[in-house]
Amino acid sequence: LVSAIPFLGEIIVQWLWGGFSVSNPTLNRFYSLHFLMPFIILALVIIHLLFLHQTGSSNPLGLNSNLSKIPFHPYFTYKDIMGFIIMSFMFMLVLKFYPNIFKDHDNFIQANPMVTPIHIQPEWYFLFAYAILRSIPSKLGGVIALTMSIMILFSMPLNKSMFSSSSFYPFGQFMFWMFVTSMLMLTWLGSQPIEYPFMIISQINSIMYFSFFFLINYINKLEDFLMN
């Protein structure tokens, strides 16, 4: 994917590989990255909780609710402990009794460096981005769309409207569920072969996916205007 970057692509690829091909330095670097990622995510979670305690959380009406606030402990402490217990139970249930339920059947084929599998795919939580990547014929365009499909999620806080809740925005709710539907469809399409009609459906759902982020702000402003 990185090799699609003009001019600097090949240099970056060789820097990531640590040579001219995938070798031991490559494996060491990516193993170290996978080891460090959980600690980076943990640090981001701590920063998130720090800001949450400093500024407080919002409410659907977007109004000041200091008079209605309740202590974090014991109300939310017990609630979070209960959620953690249920999540741990479900995790252990899958781990102990159904360990292969989320695995792809190709994972059970012995690796052969001389043969590339006919249909390779990432884990299920990356399938929507993988489907967007495959839906664009251009390699560079696919890489840009893949990157944008993740980065565009960070634009959601920029969506400003009169109310924080979508309960007051019926057209916004319709757009949201269209977005959820397109994301679920892309997740399914990412696991399908690269052939007709899956390619056409992937392109349509990719347009629906990105359209949500470009239209939702204007739709909310229109509904704010109609309510005024």
Automatic annotation (TrEMBL):
Give an example GO cellular component term for this record. Answer: mitochondrial inner membrane
A Gene Ontology biological process noted in the UniProt record is:
mitochondrial electron transport, ubiquinol to cytochrome c
Gene Ontology MF terms in the entry = metal ion binding; oxidoreductase activity; quinol-cytochrome-c reductase activity
Q: Which CDD domains match?
A: cytochrome_b_C (cd00290)
Q: Which InterPro entries match?
A: Cyt_b/b6_C (IPR005798), Cyt_b/b6_C_sf (IPR036150), Cyt_b/b6_N (IPR005797), Cytb/b6-like_sf (IPR027387), Cytochrome_b_C_euk/bac (IPR048260), Di-haem_cyt_TM (IPR016174)
Q: Which cofactor does it need?
A: heme b
Q: What Pfam families does this protein's entry cite?
A: Cytochrom_B_C, Cytochrom_B_N_2
The transmembrane residues are 30-52, 81-98, 136-156, 168-190, 196-219
Coarse class of the primary localization is mitochondrion
Q: How does it sit in the membrane?
A: Multi-pass membrane protein
* Cytochrome b/b6 C-terminal region profile domain boundaries: 62-228
Spell out the subcellular localization from the entry: Mitochondrion inner membrane
Q: How is the cofactor bound?
A: Binds 2 heme groups non-covalently.
Q: Which UniProt keywords apply?
A: Electron transport, Heme, Iron, Membrane, Metal-binding, Mitochondrion, Mitochondrion inner membrane, Respiratory chain, Transmembrane, Transmembrane helix, Transport, Ubiquinone
Question: Residue ranges of the Cytochrome b/b6 N-terminal region profile domain?
Answer: 1-61
What function does the entry list? Component of the ubiquinol-cytochrome c reductase complex (complex III or cytochrome b-c1 complex) that is part of the mitochondrial respiratory chain. The b-c1 complex mediates electron transfer from ubiquinol to cytochrome c. Contributes to the generation of a proton gradient across the mitochondrial membrane that is then used for ATP synthesis.
Belongs to which family? Belongs to the cytochrome b family.
Q: How does it assemble?
A: The main subunits of complex b-c1 are: cytochrome b, cytochrome c1 and the Rieske protein.
What is the name of the protein in this document? Answer: Cytochrome b
Q: Which organism is it from?
A: Neozeleboria monticola form 3
